[in-house]
């Protein structure tokens, strides 16, 4: 019996249970804890209840008063319910608009001989590297009361401003132009999957181009289109950076209300209810997106030619190329506006800055060097933790068919950053695990939030490695763990490196987690930019924003080179 138990407990078993323990402590317990708080209206110290009889008695007393009062207040009080409805309206509108905006670009990439596809592919990644609160500030520089777009508008005879940027419309526009790449590449793939010969057959039977597009092309691509729409809904619903900058006081949005209830009023009940609602909505639409991808399959005819004729009609290609350029130009102008602001002596009276200086960059390197170092150290800590955990999760899922780890490691995909932050604050705010206000909890939060990117990269590398290579090492006398580390590990280096860069990039620009959890001594660059914007130090904030964008662009370029990713 003892011998059999000893054989079952090896290095891999210990590692697997340590990973389970990590997710249990820092993901499952916080989410369960915030659920309990939403029913009790008071903070619950789950860990303290296991080590202190007094804490356990308090916890049991709180649990004895479980009710749905906090949830009923969601529908009785106008503020919370309005925030939920407004958020649903915002996300639905953004999802629909992004789909409409992206469809022509995706079709151009997949089905036409549009020139400069590599250039357009590179430009379409730029919106992804800009933190959303920075893109919101960029739109303020463009469309605010003293924005350069409105200067041009007034010079052409217009009165006032084109529109109020600090409004629902402003939030929608920022999210549309900076979130569209999330939908673009899945749609490109959807158009490429369907068989072009079906369209040719339709045209040979006398159908016109538009009729063929609507009755043949679109139905074949519809699963990918719907999946992209649901993904954009989830991304928009969870976005914190744009609403916190652009939402006016009379516009309630659930992600902003949850932050205010926690950071402003320490209202545990209100923040917990809003957190649970956000989780449920995000989980539902994530599940719906997965259902669309798995539940729909459109077959195409076999025996298709190896090379398919792309649409080379000059009129179609010219219109789609111009349209794609105009869509991509908007976020580029936003980044350009931030860059001009970082160089400006003063800016506001005219369309362009009154003068130019590099002093703002000197300022951030002299006074904000600690924020820069904090970002690098925190991102480095999250990277190391992500590499270790994600690599072994990939191994257990691919080689050992661990469905449990696969499921648990996917949960962060449905957890909005603000929800995770509130859950971690509630859980680790008291002894025996009082981690709130420490760099360690911030690193752990970054790791949990961004680990799915790492797991996706390492899992694809693991699948490409043949199992017999590992078996050969075991047959030569190596243990399974030693074989995995010394044989499989080196072969996974490209995937690990690409995933590590992606984790580093996303942590550098993370906003919601940093805003809630970062202690003063460990404030990263993203938090420093946000605080500078609130203090009105716009030029210094712009300089640091450009530094963040530059770091992210360089690292994403390295990630692309490592994975040899072809986006077109």
From TrEMBL:
It is found in: Cell inner membrane; Cell membrane. It holds the Pfam family BPD_transp_1. It is a multi-pass membrane protein. The chain crosses the membrane at residues 12-39, 90-110, 119-143, 163-185, 220-245, 265-288, 316-340, 376-398, 405-425, 431-448, 495-517, 538-559. InterPro entries: MetI-like (IPR000515), MetI-like_sf (IPR035906). The keyword Transport applies. Gene3D superfamilies: MetI-like. Residues 84-289, 372-559 form the ABC transmembrane type-1 domain. The keyword Transmembrane helix applies. Keywords: Cell inner membrane, Cell membrane, Membrane, Transmembrane, Transmembrane helix, Transport. PANTHER family: FE(3+)-TRANSPORT SYSTEM PERMEASE PROTEIN FBPB 2 (PTHR43357:SF3), INNER MEMBRANE ABC TRANSPORTER PERMEASE PROTEIN YDCV (PTHR43357). Belongs to the binding-protein-dependent transport system permease family. This is Iron ABC transporter permease. It comes from Brevibacillus ruminantium.
